[in-house]
Amino acid sequence: MNRRIGATAAAAAALVLAPAAAASAYEASDFDSTVTATSVAAGQAVNYYIDGPVVNDEITVTVTSSPTSIPDSAIAIAGTATMTKATDANGDASFAITLSAAGTYTFTAVDAEGDVINTQAVAVAAAGSPSATLPVTGSSATPLALGGGALALAGIGTVLFAKRRNQARI
C-alpha cells in the first residue's frame, strides 16, 4: 500500500514538474559565443559569433566600455553601439565590431526574449602601443638549430678521424 502511495506521489510530482522542466529546457547558458580576438589594436575589427537557439529569430548585441568615459562614437557595429540581426536557420548570427578607443569592452548577446545568451570581453590597446600585438610565446629555434648543427659537425669529425686512424693502422 505504501509503495502505491509513493508511486502515485512520484507520478503526480513528475506531472507537475514536467511543464517546468520543458520551460527551462531553453536556457541561454546552453549557447556559446566566440570573438576572433580578445586583444586588438584600436580601429581593428573584431568578429563576434553567437551560437544561439534555433527557435530564436533575432539576436541583439550591445557593447559597453570600461572606462565609461569612452564615448559611444568609439564603438561601431555597422555604425551603432547596439545592433539586432536576424539569425540564420541554426539560430546563429555574426557581428563585425570595430572599437576605435583603448579600453576594455564587453559584448553581450541577447535573444529575442531578452535572455542573455553569452558575453565576451575584448581589450583594446592604443594604436601603435606594444601591447597592441600578440605576446611572443614559446622558445626560439635558433639555439636548438645551432646545437644540432654543432653535434652533426662533431659526429662527422669523429667519423673522419676514426676513418683516418684506421687507414693509418693498415
From TrEMBL:
Keywords: Cell wall, Membrane, Peptidoglycan-anchor, Secreted, Signal, Transmembrane, Transmembrane helix. Residues 1-25 form the signal peptide. It comes from the Bacteria. The keyword Transmembrane helix applies. Residues 134-170 form the Gram-positive cocci surface proteins LPxTG domain. The chain crosses the membrane at residues 144-162. InterPro entries: LPXTG_anchor. NCBIfam families: LPXTG_anchor. This is LPXTG cell wall anchor domain-containing protein. It comes from Sanguibacter suaedae.
